[in-house]
Amino acid sequence: MIPISDHIRLRHPPIVIYWLIGINIAIFLWQIKLGITGELASFIDSWGLIPAQISGAITHAIYLNPAAWVVVFWRLPSLFLAMFLHGSISQIVGNLIFLWVFGKTLSSVIGYKRVLALYLGGGILTGIAQIILEPSLTVPLIGANGAIATILGAYLSKFPQRKIDTIMPLLILYIPVELPAYSYLFWWFIQQLFYGIGSLNMTASDVNSGNFSFWVQLLGLCLGAAAIRYYESSSKS
Question: In what order do the strands lie in the sheet with 163-170?
Fold first, then answer.
């Protein structure tokens, strides 16, 4: 299922969505270049989110060596940077399609600042959850999955019954249909089984092999839904 449009008229151009899509594409093109030169694996190891490095540094700093806080603060930016890295063409295309279809409407309804806060906050908080759930994980976690899940959760909470123009690939045919927005709650998880398609050359880095990724993204969906409910309640008061 490929979402196309929800036919909600935008109140203003979704500038922040343009920027987020552009930044993700630019960084992915840079990753492709690094893959050609053989530098991608070390780049992902340096800037991807590796829970064991952060949890280990925090434990070391608390119990053994306060100077290890330097390492903690050195690795913390990966919570932010990892959400702009992607491991395959299918992963970035899937994420950006969801960001465009669902994010642009949210930007029009609740404003670009709140959408940006949802995206970045969701990505960072789901990254923290991954560290807590798998503190010994030694492989890099990359991708905007947590951030997009938060955007999707907010949209589904706001427009659960909204009809989405959808293309259903069937062999070599593409069938246009309309589906309710909540259908994508299930498809969001199913499509990630195909995120290995078009993987970049990262033989030295076994990325995104965490055992709790789906649960973390479920948290992202809940965060988005809670955030939109909070916004609506605060707007009425």
Answer: 2-5, 163-170, 173-180
